[in-house]
Amino acid sequence: MSLKDRVTKCIGEDVIAVTENMGDIGVEVPKERIVSVLTRLKEDPDTGFDFLSDLFGVDNLDWYEKQKKKKKSKKKAEGEEEQEQEQVEEDKGPPPPRFEVVYLLLSLKTNERLQVKIRVPEDDMTVDTVTGIWKAADWPEREAFDMFGFKFKGHHNLRRLLMWDEFEDHPLRKDYPLEGKGEERHLSYD
Fold first, then answer.
1. Helix axes 3-11, 34-43, angle to 10 degrees
2. Is residue 136 part of a domain?
3. Residue 184 domain flag
4. Domain count, the chain
5. What is the largest CA-CA distance in the chain?
6. Rounded CA separation 65/42 (Å)
7. What is the CA radius of gyration of the chain?
8. Of the residues 49, 101, 105, 172, which has the fewest C-beta atoms closer than 10 A?
9. Residues 131-188: pLDDT tens digits?
């Protein structure tokens, strides 16, 4: 049985989408079910993803903004056609969440890799921690918190890892200015 089939069988109804790109399998699951899904992927003998290679955040701001904007081909004197086009755009539904958390898993037994991702809306950046499944998730979750602002519920030590404690923003978000906001930190070596 292929990896794609085994993963789909293992997590069943929790699969939102399965992608395959150049031999790599990716699975999207609901953010509320991430701990359950990753536990099953680790403990199921058919999958056995016993190693968390990495965990990171993604900001899809450009794609998100494109999806959010209403397309207007050109302004017309008569408003009917423009209203009709706007109605078609509204029928497509709201844009998908801007942020993602991606978990890269490895099976040490079979040397197979799997990418599991969840989408995280900007207005609710809370995600369940997976440090109970893999202790190695500790620092990557802290980095994702520091750089993107994800709040990992249940994390035992969620604090900044790379930036200083007083730093208020999240510098890997794409709406953060490229050259910063003029922050300065003066170090004292007493």
1. 130
2. no
3. no
4. 1
5. 72
6. 36
7. 20
8. 172
9. 999 999 999 999 999 999 999 999 999 999 999 888 888 999 988 877 777 677 666 7
